[in-house]
Design a protein that fits this description.
The structure is a single chain. With 220 residues, this protein is an alpha+beta fold. The protein is built from 7 helices and 11 strands. Helix content is 28%, strand content 21%. Strands 7-8-9-11-10 form a 5-stranded antiparallel sheet, sandwiched between helices. The protein starts with a strand and ends with a helix.
Amino acid sequence: MLSFTCPLCNGAWPVPEGVAGRTGVCGHCGRQVLLPPWAPPSPPEPEAPPPAPLAAPLSPRVMRLIAAGVLLALLGGGGVVAWNVWRGRPVILGGSGVTSEAAHAPPKAPAGTPGEAWTHEELIAHLRKQGLRFDARATDYGSLLGPAMFFSERGEVTEAQAATLGKSNLPSGYAFVQRRKTDDEARAACAKTPGRCFAWGRYYVTGDAAFVDRIKGALP
């Protein structure tokens, strides 16, 4: 049923929905009136969706990756930038672009020249393959000029020996083997102790003359 208010007498009375839009008699004043067309009620407005949950904060690793992408876009650096930022390593901005701290390391020795490129471990492995039998121990003696080791044909080099021996007081069967920064430095050091030393690439070797000769003879 619909509630209708007569425009002539202001009387309100219920009418069926089916007579809406027709002429009828007012139930209060008895005069003919036009019943207005019935309009269905408007559907209720949909409820607003709940607010989206707040995004979780980005992890430090994700933040570093985003920073790497920004650096690549702005500065045109290589993949090493993204990798270093991802790993949390420092990135140095130089006059010629972006580099990592690896670019400031000493230049590598050219390949194919063992005396320039070999580490002490590679040198020891080669000498032992050539049949030399000796013990080796690292020492801090002269370490400001380059990493050094004592080689001994007379048994184990103890920590005490490595801490107290010098190249000028080596016993028989011992050698002092140092890797200098350049081959020029190695040759200059050998020039100061002629007769019982030799320079091989960046290596300066001195000590017992017979042992030093055997080392020299086993090198490529």
